[in-house]
Fold this sequence. Notes:
The chain is 72% helix and 0% strand.
Amino acid sequence: xxxxxxxxxxxxxxxxxxxxxxxxxxxxxxxxxxxxxxxxxxxxxxxxxxxxxxxxxxxxxxxxxxxxxxxxxxxxxxxxxxxxxxxxxxxxxxxxxxxxxxxxxxxxxxxxxxxxxxxxxxxxxxxxxxxxxxxxxxxxxxx
Length: 143
């Protein structure tokens, strides 16, 4: 018996499209679980990073984008709502409620953007999130 590991077989183009699409659509898990979308994107990245640069790029983008929109957006909304609640005692906070409502749209916009990414990947296109995509590509190129 040999201790040599067999080389990792690359994914077919069809499998690449499917896993990249699933990485982006993992944002839908956040609707049900609240936070498992980034976990699913991370698992896809870890499983397929050595088998497909395309899937690695798309899944890492999805992971970072979800952390920004769901975690970062959620914290921002929570902090703004808390400040508005405290300032409401002085009647100033009432003016902040439209801002809170506007900031609450960040996760919704992220959801729509993630679904668009999933659709484009299923069609074999190289989807890139605004600002996140270039950073991830540079990170993967340096690895």
